Amino acid sequence: MLFYILDLIGVAVFAASGTLAAMASHLDLLGIMVLAAMTAIGGGTVRDLLLNRHPVFWIEDPKPLLVIVASAVLTIVWVQVLPVPTDALLIADALGLALFAMSGAKVAEAQGCRALIVILMGTLTGVGGGLVRDILAAKVPLILRQDIYATAAIAGILLYILLKKAGMPPRWAFGVGLVSIVVVRLLAIQLGLRLPSF
User: Fold this and answer.
1) What's the average model confidence in pLDDT over 66-86?
2) Which candidate, 124, 116, 98, places its Cα nearest to that of 43?
3) In the UniProt record, does the keyword Amino-acid biosynthesis occur (predicted)?
4) What is the mean pLDDT of residues 162-173?
């Protein structure tokens, strides 16, 4: 139940991120809702389609859609009254990335996928929505720039797999992977760490 609640918090954070991107691009209300939804559930939707999981998670349980609408509306209202809490959003985005990446990895594991596919599906779940958001907002996607974003997800999922293979209980390995993604992402932001460009 705790994991489910955290997952919905991740949906809310990513929906807020999509809402802010849509407002920055001066989209109308429908455009805002579309971008919020694509950011929040885009990665998980593509994952489910690639893994042939039916129904797609938000069709089976529509609560994420309600969370998206509520988050988008609250974000719109917040921006009209108060400044955007940038630092809080960055922290929440790191947590959302970690939750989505690790939950995506667990879904792929449950489907019997090999380690490489688990890493790919987990990473896709974590960053796919943001990729769609940036494309629709006519920006170069974050994961194609130098930011350590998808890299943090890959590292955390890989650590989770290795710890499990080394004999650590799955629950503990999951927690370590989750925390490592958050820490790597926040350190990258704080210290301005970037991947080399060519």
Assistant:
1) 89
2) 124
3) no
4) 94
CB-based contacts of 176-182 (< 8 A; 24+ apart in sequence): 177/102, 177/105, 178/98, 178/99, 178/102, 179/98, 180/152, 180/155, 180/156, 181/94, 181/97, 181/98, 181/101, 181/102, 181/126, 181/152, 181/153, 181/155, 181/156, 181/157, 182/94, 182/95, 182/97, 182/98
CB 177 within 8 A of CB 153: no
pLDDT tens digits, one per residue of 105-131: 999 999 999 999 999 999 999 998 888
Whether the CB-CB separation of 40 and 15 falls below 8 Å is answered with yes
Note whether 149 and 128 are within 8 A (CB).
no
Of the candidates 136, 101, 124, 126, the residue with the CA atom closest to the CA atom of residue 21: 136
- Bond into 62 cis (ω within 30): no
**What φ, ψ does residue 147 adopt, rounded to 5°?**
-60, 140
- pLDDT band for position 142 (50/70/90)? low
Residue 125 is predicted with a pLDDT of 93
- CA pair distance 30, 5, nearest whole angstrom: 27
Quick one: pLDDT at residue 131? 83
Helix axes 115-136, 2-24, angle to 10 degrees: 30
